Please model this.
Amino acid sequence: GQNIDQPTEMTATEGAIVQINCTYQTSGFNGLFWYQQHAGEAPTFLSYNVLDGLEEKGRFSSFLSRSKGYSYLLLKELQMKDSASYLCAVRDSNYQLIWGAGTKLIIKP
Amino acid sequence: GAVVSQHPSRVICKSGTSVKIECRSLDFQATTMFWYRQFPKKSLMLMATSNEGSKATYEQGVEKDKFLINHASLTLSTLTVTSAHPEDSSFYICSPGQGAGTDTQYFGPGTRLTVL
Model:
């Protein structure tokens, strides 16, 4: 079966750095996405990785290792508004998105 | 990025009634529309994939006669929850397909359905 694993919840301090990990086992791979979702809202796109390595976009970076079936989202200089759920999703061989359950990130002052 | 709208954003209805949710892609033509459902503190769950001008494809466990999907044009897809029950209360989100190889997947703002 297809499976995406990410921690259920993480806590970090304002101004610090946090890394959210995602491991996956899917039938085929056509890219990995990270989304941010605030409570009661739809997900918003953060990043896309299809090749190995690090993609940096401002305070957010995403890393992919296809051989290890592993990705992480790195958030720097955390702000209170970064408190949200972070969803990892993999596009499989049928170009269908397979979703992780999301990681709830709690930022403390 | 792509602009996707959904209407209504919130709806409260009585058990047994039907509710229609509209999803519009405002700045591009969507031949495919994905419909998701999300229960509180749960991940997004794909319900069905609609294709413009043809029948939708439903995921296992999703009743096609209960969740009617119409994709009559390249900019509009609708999801109708028929004879709604309290267990259908959920957050429904549409997402237009942008083709293989595209580097993102945008979502509508979602519709919060509460069935009393």
